[in-house]
């Protein structure tokens, strides 16, 4: 069975990642307008009406903007933990009770041909999670919006073949940003905020040792980062340890405004 993984959007302006195996087709988050997500799905030859579910990481609007619209339009079940459902209720609107699917953070569950492990992450939301997904002996993961890589997160991600890993900001650009208050800068840099490029590079190095083969650096800030900075930081960190990028591991960008590279495993 093939496991397909493709970020449709990844950034501070909106997030949606497509995962499929067999007849099961999922979105991890739907944080862009419904029309934008529909167009991105059709660009990879997926009809929105064939979606099996939308799995939500947390309630912030850059992850939930299109959840209610797509669920109601196409009768797509929404999966989240209890606290996330409660926290996002006002922004996503009414989800019929027969399309609300609850899980317990840390406990595996199944959607068709996909097994999912929702692991807790450190972020300023009600009960945020990342996801690791399995099918046919392969696994992929989404790990963004976290202020630190905890031991629990590292264990949940160890051995993943492909993942989107947060590389949100460059510390210098963030601190020099005249549009951000000191409070907001401190929030982003906190252990309940986001991973910097340097944080991400250290996590990437540790995860490489567990068997990670492909990483897409995601959730890049539009104002406090650039794809070039994120990529160069990761490549330089790996290179210092003798790891050859594009030979030992591939490192790409999960783009904020367009479909990124698609991976088909198995």
How many domains? The number is 1
Q: Which CATH architecture?
A: 4-Layer Sandwich
Largest sheet: 7 strands, mixed
Order of helices and strands: EEEHEHHEHEEEEEHEHHHEHEE
Oligomer: single chain
What is the distance, rounded to the nearest whole angstrom, between the alpha carbons of the first and last residues? 6 Å
Instruction: Report the CATH topology name.
Output: Metallo-beta-lactamase, Chain A
Total of DSSP H or I helical runs spanning 4+ residues: 9
Could you list the spans in which at least 5 consecutive residues all have pLDDT below 50? Answer: none
Structure write-up:
There is one protein chain. It is globular, with a radius of gyration of 17 Å. It has helices at residues 34-43, 61-64, 67-74, 82-92, 151-157, 171-176, 182-189, 197-208, 227-240; strands spanning 3-9, 16-21, 24-28, 53-55, 78-80, 100-102, 109-111, 114-120, 129-135, 138-143, 162-166, 214-218, 250-253, 263-265. The protein has one domain: Ribonuclease Z/Hydroxyacylglutathione hydrolase-like (Metallo-beta-lactamase, Chain A), CATH 3.60.15.10. The longest helix is centred in the C-terminal third of the chain and has 14 residues, at 227-240. Helices cover 30% and strands 25% of the residues. Helix 8 (197-208) packs across helix 9. With 266 residues, the chain is an alpha/beta fold. Strands 6-5-4-3-2-1-14 form a seven-stranded mixed sheet. Strands 7-8-9-10-11-12-13 form a seven-stranded mixed sheet.
């Amino acid at each position: 069975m093939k496991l397909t993984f493709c970020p449709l959007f990844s950034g501070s302006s909106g997030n949606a990642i497509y995962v499929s195996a067999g007849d099961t087709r999922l979105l991890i988050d739907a944080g862009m307008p419904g029309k934008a997500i529909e167009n991105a799905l059709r660009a990879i030859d997926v009809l929105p009406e064939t979606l099996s579910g939308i799995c939500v990481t947390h309630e912030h609007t850059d992850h939930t903007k299109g959840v209610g619209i797509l669920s109601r339009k196409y009768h797509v079940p929404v999966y989240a933990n209890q606290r996330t459902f409660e926290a996002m209720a006002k922004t996503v609107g009414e989800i019929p009770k027969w399309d609300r699917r609850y899980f317990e953070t840390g406990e595996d569950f199944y959607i068709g041909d996909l097994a999912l492990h929702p692991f807790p992450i450190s972020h300023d939301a009600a009960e945020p999670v990342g996801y690791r997904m399995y099918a046919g002996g392969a696994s992929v993961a989404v790990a963004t919006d976290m202020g630190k890589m905890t031991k629990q997160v590292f264990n949940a991600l160890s051995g993943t073949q492909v993942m989107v890993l947060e590389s949100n900001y460059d510390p210098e650009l963030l601190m020099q940003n005249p549009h951000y208050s000191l409070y907001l800068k401190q929030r982003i840099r906190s252990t309940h905020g986001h991973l910097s490029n340097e944080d991400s590079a250290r996590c990437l190095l540790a995860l490489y040792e567990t068997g990670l083969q492909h990483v897409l650096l995601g959730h890049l800030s539009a104002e406090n980062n650039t794809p070039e900075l994120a990529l160069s930081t990761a490549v330089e960190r790996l290179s210092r340890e003798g790891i050859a990028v594009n030979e030992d591991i591939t490192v790409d960008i999960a783009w904020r405004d367009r479909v990124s590279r698609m991976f088909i495993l198995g």
